[in-house]
Amino acid sequence: MLNCAGRSVDLSRPAIMGVINTTPDSFSDGGTLYRGEQLDLDLALARAADMVARGAAILDIGGESTRPGAAPVTVAREMQRVLPLVERVSAELDVVVSVDTSSPEVITAAAGAGAGLINDVRALSRPGALDAAAATGLPICLMHMLGQPDDMQAAPQYDDVVTEVEEFLLQRVAACEAVGIARESLLLDPGFGFGKTVAHNLLLLRGLPRLADLGLPLLVGLSRKSMIGKLLGREVDQRLPASLALAVMAVERGAAIIRTHDVGATADAVAMWVAMQEVGES
Prior knowledge:
alpha/beta; eight-stranded parallel beta sheet; 16% strand; globular
């Protein structure tokens, strides 16, 4: 059971994390919560409520696009996008709120606004992020990324992608423990699509059991990723079937949390896998 600021997530079976981007430029759903140039909080809350109704145990709210080539945002702009929605969702819905951020200021403010989980694509590598995260007492997801969003897909290279991702994540776990963050508060994300070619992503998925053997819950995000488009020639809005297949393959290989844009369909697919595992048990 993962304790997230008074709310808990049962990780004895795979949990679903719904994606809510408050950005105008995210690769899949950027701008869909906007009316003109303004984020529509009521629309965002309605989407959050729908995701919870469809089976999301966690909602991941992000205010900075990390798609390949994305431009950075200021801390003030990120807070403006994220904090009002974190406050409303945590107050009005019975769900764990995760904040997708790398900024120490946002980590601190989001915890005060009701967030129960910090999800950092940069694995708390920004100056001050480790101390800020430790001070919140919240669980933290550490993700692997080679480079930064503006350059991560510029010919990424590995000698052994599974080994190098594993080594990086273990280094970040050690850094967290060094500032007093308990190991049982940590989750790991291999970072599919973040500084990885299609081949790297497939090798990483095949090697996922090795990362699961590290003993920390794995959070996996493969929903609508560009690898699907490159392999199958599908546009973003045509990637649901492949996303579901990848989600099931991930839970078969040890993923504890599936991060997805399509909560209902993914929850159904994962529930069928769970049913197969549990049949005949008493």
